[in-house]
């Protein structure tokens, strides 16, 4: 009788003991980060793409959506090193995986420019000087480049698909995507850092 019971109980116990983690385990403990993303984030510093000519940003459409964008800073060197690496990882993967070429519309923003944008109304920004991660080199506004032209329209299905993919990759590298905000900002990403906002940039 004891031998028979052992034969009945042993196989299930062996299965439980030898069972490997489920291939589709979506619990937080079973999360496996994208290997390519991990390699890019911890590897050599990525190189920013060459800047498009200034006239690319001097269009009526762009000016309507991003006031004074022609005067915005697109100097990658003014961005926080960690943030820059994450953003460049997104740029690279958007092009390699999905065929979208991204362009930096604005990175670092001076407190004076932030104040000027605030004065243009809440549809432009609701953040005052030093209350935006832009002032600390921890935020960027981006758009797509198609046939040498900046595409930012939310009425363009191609661009909207791009924003969705952009948001997914941005979040995968640990950035906050403005597309999840109540007042959506689809091209905006930032790296939140405790104790930064409200203090002058160092």
TrEMBL record:
Q: Start and end of every Peptidase M15C domain?
A: 129-191
The organism's taxonomic lineage, starting at the top? Bacteria, Pseudomonadati, Pseudomonadota, Betaproteobacteria, Rhodocyclales
Q: Which residues form the signal peptide?
A: none
Against InterPro entries, the record matches this protein to: Peptidase_M15C, Zn_M74/Hedgehog-like
**What is the protein's species of origin?**
Aromatoleum diolicum
Protein name per UniProt: M15 family peptidase
